[in-house]
UniProtKB/TrEMBL annotation:
SMART domains: REC, Trans_reg_C. GO terms for biological process: regulation of DNA-templated transcription. The keyword NADP does not apply. InterPro entries: CheY-like_superfamily, OmpR/PhoB-type_DNA-bd, Sig_transdc_resp-reg_C-effctor, Sig_transdc_resp-reg_receiver, WalR-like, WH-like_DNA-bd_sf. PROSITE patterns: OMPR_PHOB, RESPONSE_REGULATORY. This is Response regulator transcription factor. The keyword Ribonucleoprotein does not apply. Residues 135-233 bind DNA. CDD domains: trans_reg_C. It is found in: Cytoplasm. The modification 4-aspartylphosphate is found at residue 53.
Amino acid sequence: MSDKVLIIEDEPTIARLVTYNLSQEGYETEVVGNGAEGLHNAIHEDYAIIFLDLMLPGMNGFEVLQKLRQNGVKTPVIILTARNAEEEVVQGLKLGADDYITKPFGVAELLARTSAVLRRSRNEETKEAAVSGSEKIITLGDLQIFPDKYEVLLNGQWITLRPKEFEVLLYLAERPGIVITRDDLMNVVWGFDYIGGQRTVDVHVSSLRKKLELNQQTVQIESIRGVGYKLMISRKAGLTGR
Ligand code: CA
């Protein structure tokens, strides 16, 4: 994986702050001051992570993010937003951002979020590499998921899930720590033409939670208000894949 970081930001002070601190940590940095050029570079080069300002001249950050994901670029993105801009954050996460930082931010927060997002994306890569070829088993803390068999083992005990519950869990478990919107779950598990509302998603998640809580306690499905869900694994259990 590349150690290069792309910073798409038109405010020189913010761009300098990010550049300076990430260079200190050993990353190679590249700053671009407008959306179109940022998008071009993000598509054509390999970066470990992209910092994306939302209010950019020309093409704004939302468009950049949307086009990036439409082009199949999976590089983790941290959006840079103004304070009190909850709607922007929600919109950004829905479009596929991995995390956000609110301006103004401190160095500690910048570095913590950067390494958390990188750790997650590296875990994903390792996991994908490890499962190819053999029977796929996803291991998260004390939870083991067998996608081919629709079976789940939690802390050594088999858990009975309905097919849709299983599919929701699998989708979340393949993306631990990443916010998944209700729309995404809806489309992936039920299909675009499903007539029921998003309430269906909530009902399944809540039933799934109860079944996982019978045994506990390293995997949890966290609600992100107004957006969706993410699956969290407690640090103690670690995150491994095979
Ligand atoms: Ca800006």
